[in-house]
């Protein structure tokens, strides 16, 4: 029976979800990951997985119960503060109450928990660590449509299908399109305040159980509680791409860097907002945010494709990146599964079957381009709301308007309008 040789590059949420889905559908594949092992670096903050897309992917993976056992539904709540400490929005325990209903049903999970769950679900030996891809090359003899993978230390040959799930700076993408990510206009620092409950219980209470945004005019502190007791904060604003090199901040001394950063950009912010950065651990990472063009697409190339950030890198401001990535994986796997059943399993020669790889991948790409463009537009809209000259009131006005439209639509459809309960604290706008 024909079985194409498939490589997935990158063991992030997209690559691991895809590999799991292919393997449980008897489509063998190997994942190649550049990191040395699963502990090579801390995985960063947490992610909210949405109903319908990412959660459906986990259901298909047979991992949904495992996910729900570690997911934090209470982490979905949102608070928005003005720089002077005025609370503009507090969902209290009423998740999604002040935002459109689409924000409900998005439990948070720590990245490392999600990643470990997916890694442990793969066939033993099918994830190869310490394989840093340098380039994908066509068969040098020119006689086959196969690809060779050039890793840092060796070459592996003869792949029928190479799927780039290798994130923002994808090497696989280089063979498919000349388009490269560009700077989004937003940069700043990424910090983590460990064990906040012990270090500063009052600050911990201020953050709450989920996301806590302090939004000034074009300048923000975006904080999020993680499952391990830390709060991760991003001090983001509109600045030039090379800001971290030209700003004069002494990055070699984290304590000095935090102090300089706050003094330079957070005039008018109260101590609580400042302390989320000043009291953070001594590890300050400048983080310029990049994106691919909204509506990015390419002409299909046989035997190659992209999923996740490699295909449609977005800034994180709509909180959809990992959700689109896992939806890509689900969709890709379903397309291959259908073609396996209908075409490959019946094929008499591998040449016919290799050509038959084109159609499911092309179908996946056409649907993914439309989906990714929709999410990329939403992301751009939220970027403008996070970094608005009116600060947090712009975001609150947006939510109030969207809520009102939802209510009207429900009334027009003859349904009961969603109950509007007063939140624990008064909305100011
Ligand atoms: C600061 C920040 C906050 C975010 N917050 C959210 C959020 O709240 N919600 C949300 O939905 N999304 C969020 N995102 C986006 C989300 O992290 C990504 O969309 C998601 O991780 C994409 O998954 P991926 O598997 O496509 O790529 P990645 O997670 O980037 O994984 C790519 C993998 O490929 C490996 N790799 C890279 N190059 C190579 C190579 N040459 N050879 C071999 N392996 C390679 C990497 O080591 C990595 O393991 C955030 C992003 C950032 C930067």
From TrEMBL:
* Region Disordered: start-end pairs: 407-429
Instruction: List the Pfam families.
Output: FAD_binding_3
- Does the keyword Oxidoreductase belong to this entry? yes
Q: Which UniProt keywords apply?
A: FAD, Flavoprotein, Monooxygenase, Oxidoreductase
Q: Which domain of life is it from?
A: Eukaryota
Asked whether the keyword Zinc-finger is assigned, the reply is: no
Instruction: Domain (FAD-binding): give its ranges.
Output: 6-194, 303-338
Q: InterPro entries, per this entry? A: FAD-bd, FAD/NAD-bd_sf
What are the recorded GO MF terms, alphabetically? FAD binding; monooxygenase activity
Q: Which PANTHER family match?
A: FAD DEPENDENT OXIDOREDUCTASE DOMAIN-CONTAINING PROTEIN (PTHR46972:SF1), MONOOXYGENASE ASQM-RELATED (PTHR46972)
- Name of the protein in question: FAD/NAD(P)-binding domain-containing protein
Which species is the source of this protein? Mytilinidion resinicola
């Amino acid at each position: 029976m024909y079985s194409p040789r498939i490589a997935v590059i990158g063991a992030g949420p997209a690559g691991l979800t895809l590999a799991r889905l292919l393997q449980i559908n008897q489509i063998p594949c190997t994942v190649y990951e550049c990191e040395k092992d699963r502990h090579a670096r801390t995985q960063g903050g947490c992610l909210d997985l949405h109903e319908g897309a990412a959660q459906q992917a986990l259901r298909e993976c047979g991992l949904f119960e495992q996910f729900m056992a570690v997911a934090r539904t209470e982490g979905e709540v949102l608070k928005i503060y003005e720089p002077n400490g005025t609370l503009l929005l507090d969902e209290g325990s009423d998740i999604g109450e002040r935002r459109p209903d689409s924000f409900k049903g998005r439990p948070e999970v720590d990245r490392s928990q999600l990643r470990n769950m997916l890694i442990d679900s793969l066939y033993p030996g099918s994830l190869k660590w310490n394989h840093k891809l340098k380039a994908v090359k066509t068969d040098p003899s020119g006689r086959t449509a196969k690809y060779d993978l050039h890793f840092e230390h060796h070459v592996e040959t003869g792949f029928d299908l190479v799927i780039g799930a290798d994130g923002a700076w994808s090497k696989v993408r280089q063979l498919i399109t000349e388009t490269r990510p560009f700077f989004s206009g937003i940069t700043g620092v990424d910090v983590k305040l460990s064990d906040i409950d012990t270090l500063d219980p009052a600050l911990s209470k201020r953050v709450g159980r989920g996301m806590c945004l302090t939004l000034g005019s074009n300048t923000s502190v975006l904080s999020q509680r993680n499952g391990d007791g830390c709060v991760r904060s991003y001090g983001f604003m509109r600045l030039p791409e090379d800001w971290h090199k030209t700003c004069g901040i002494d990055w070699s001394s984290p304590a000095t860097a935090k102090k300089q950063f706050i003094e330079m950009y957070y005039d008018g912010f109260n101590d609580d907002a400042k302390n989320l950065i000043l009291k953070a651990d001594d590890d300050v990472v400048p983080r310029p945010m990049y994106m691919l063009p909204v509506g990015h697409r390419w002409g299909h190339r046989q035997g190659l494709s992209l999923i996740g950030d490699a295909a449609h890198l977005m800034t994180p401001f709509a909180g959809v990146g990992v959700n689109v990535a896992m939806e890509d994986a689900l969709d890709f796997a379903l397309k291959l599964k259908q073609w396996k059943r209908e075409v490959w399993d019946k094929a008499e020669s591998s040449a016919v079957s290799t050509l038959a790889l084109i159609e499911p991948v092309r179908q996946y790409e056409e649907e993914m381009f439309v989906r990714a463009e929709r999410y990329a537009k939403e992301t751009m809209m939220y970027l403008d709301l996070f970094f608005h000259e009116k600060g947090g009131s712009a975001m609150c006005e947006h939510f109030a308007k969207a809520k009102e439209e939802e209510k009207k639509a429900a009334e027009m459809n003859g349904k009961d309008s969603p109950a509007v309960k007063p939140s624990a604290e008064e909305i100011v706008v």
